[in-house]
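Worked example 3 (structure in, sequence out).
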């Protein structure tokens, strides 16, 4: 997004015109940014045999899935529903890695029947899967390296108290289960958390998983998950993906020589690919001044954009109705019947009732985490692709809220 001719534009299209066409609030996705992020990541690891698997949980719109499939990406799915969406989007089953957590063996069996790659993260399921399938279906094993990493405790997944993965100290037990059931382990997986800034932390985890890989003789790939941080503020720091690519590619290539054959280096980025490609626009319903605060109250709330409330996440907010002019300080809030504050003391051009405010970094975990709280309907989604705007999900209506209700006689 940029300012041209005193208006905010996405791929040449004025954002205010898009919102006026499709209504407010509205999610807008810029496909060109998704493509450039994908290419940036593949370029960073061009010195190794790398494969990117888009983490569908970040944004599951079928058109987004199809875009990444066209780019050559695989798909990382964390539920049987995401697996089926991936198949519907045209992914080959073997290009989908299914990485669930705390699901039933029945769901894992359903995924196995669909032919996708299975990633197992606990001993109990590993045993049950081995008893049933033996070496008929290869598996990947998710290892917990016991590393604290990530920008928020809720998204730190590789530490000792995490529910994710099999402890690195349980690898001898994993090997016994695998050998007893004559299983084939085709991959090892690690994911330490999201918003990782320190490349050294990632490399330390890589050393743990590479050392563990020497315990398994039939590997085809090693999956390093993701967790790369993108910029949320002007001049914000982000993961140095190029530095990581240089160091990790060299280390991985050396490992492959030691291992005796070339393996595939896999990453599962979600936020990194789509966060900066997304924008969320809402209309200002009211400007309310109290004794200490000026509120800009919007036609949306935590039901559509929960990350600031749930993760204390910062999202830059701009007044796209007034790209230039004098500035004031506002606390931006929603219309939900509890305190749903998007941001305190935000400096932006003076806001009037009816102005459109735009939130940046709205591509990941925004629509995906939206709800019908307060019986509000979810907004539409629009994709700007090759200079044209496309409606990619209709706005919900009241009938969508009552669709599955069964009324009884009272």
């Amino acid at each position: 997004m940029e300012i041209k001719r005193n208006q905010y534009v996405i791929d040449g299209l004025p954002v205010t015109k898009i919102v006026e066409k499709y209504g407010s609030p509205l999610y807008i996705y810029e496909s060109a940014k998704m493509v450039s992020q994908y290419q940036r990541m593949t370029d960073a690891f061009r010195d190794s045999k790398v494969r990117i698997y888009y983490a569908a949980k970040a944004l599951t719109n079928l058109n987004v899935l199809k875009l990444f499939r066209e780019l050559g990406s695989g798909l990382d799915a964390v539920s049987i529903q995401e697996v089926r969406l991936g198949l519907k989007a045209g992914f080959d089953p073997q290009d989908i890695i299914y990485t669930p957590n705390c699901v039933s063996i029945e769901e894992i069996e359903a995924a196995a029947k669909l032919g996708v790659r299975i990633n197992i993260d606990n001993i109990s399921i590993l045993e049950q899967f081995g008893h049933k399938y033996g070496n008929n279906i290869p598996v990947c094993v998710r290892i917990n390296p016991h590393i604290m990493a990530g920008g928020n405790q809720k998204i730190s997944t590789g530490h000792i108290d995490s529910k994710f993965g099999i402890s690195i100290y349980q690898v001898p037990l994993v090997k016994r289960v695998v050998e007893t059931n004559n299983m084939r382990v085709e991959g090892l997986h690690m994911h330490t958390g999201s918003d990782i800034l320190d490349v050294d932390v990632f490399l330390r985890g890589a050393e743990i998983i590479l050392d563990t890989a020497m315990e398994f003789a039939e590997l085809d790939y090693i999956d390093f998950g993701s967790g790369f941080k993108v910029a949320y503020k002007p001049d914000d720091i982000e993961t140095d993906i190029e530095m990581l690519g240089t160091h990790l590619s060299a280390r991985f290539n050396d490992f492959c020589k030691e291992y005796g054959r070339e393996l595939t280096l896999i990453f599962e980025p979600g936020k990194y690919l789509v966060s900066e490609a997304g924008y969320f626009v809402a209309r200002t319903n009211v400007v309310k001044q109290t004794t200490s605060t000026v509120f800009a109250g919007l036609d949306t709330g935590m039901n559509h954009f929960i990350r600031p409330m749930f993760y204390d996440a910062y999202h830059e907010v701009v007044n796209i109705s007034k790209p230039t002019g004098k500035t004031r300080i506002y606390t931006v809030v929603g219309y939900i019947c509890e305190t749903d504050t998007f941001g305190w003391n935000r400096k932006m051009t003076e806001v009037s009732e009816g102005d459109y405010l735009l939130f940046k970094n709205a591509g990941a975990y925004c629509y995906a985490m939206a709800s019908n709280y307060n019986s509000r309907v979810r907004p539409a989604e629009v994709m700007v692709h090759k200079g044209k705007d496309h409606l990619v999900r209709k706005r919900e209506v009241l009938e969508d809220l009552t669709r599955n209700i069964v009324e009884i006689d009272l």
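Notes: Residues 207 and 362 are 33 Å apart (CA to CA). The chain has twelve helices and 21 strands.
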